[in-house]
């Protein structure tokens, strides 16, 4: 069974990637948040299965952030999650590029609890760019692929012409 664990963890990562891409393509904020919640839970399992405690704990905090942001919008939650991200960084970051992910988590905290619509998505573009920095630094091809496609989907949803109502 233990020989199958890494294979299962990798498969879980591909499922998480697909769910995350679906979420990034959504125009409805609730679907964006729900999809990212599920993707974060799956990614936590993926990273935990591969032995990354930092990655797993970061994704579990992301899942909590996405879950709570569906129900409440208050700056105090943003402060709390930003503080947790900073504490994770202080405790677990081992290289400078990991601080980009920490900064992305702090930014994400404020975006999810204080922004909606296009402003939320533009902010998530910035978060993905910060996360891409670590993927490039680590030469993580799956991370580079995930972040690049997610950026493309977010930008496509932001730059796609929207139908204008016809005035009579």
Automatic annotation (TrEMBL):
InterPro entries: Uncharacterised_HI1736/YgjV. The chain crosses the membrane at residues 6-25. Keywords: Membrane, Transmembrane, Transmembrane helix. Pfam families: Imp-YgjV. The keyword Membrane applies. It comes from the Bacteria. This is Inner membrane protein. It comes from Ferrimonas gelatinilytica.
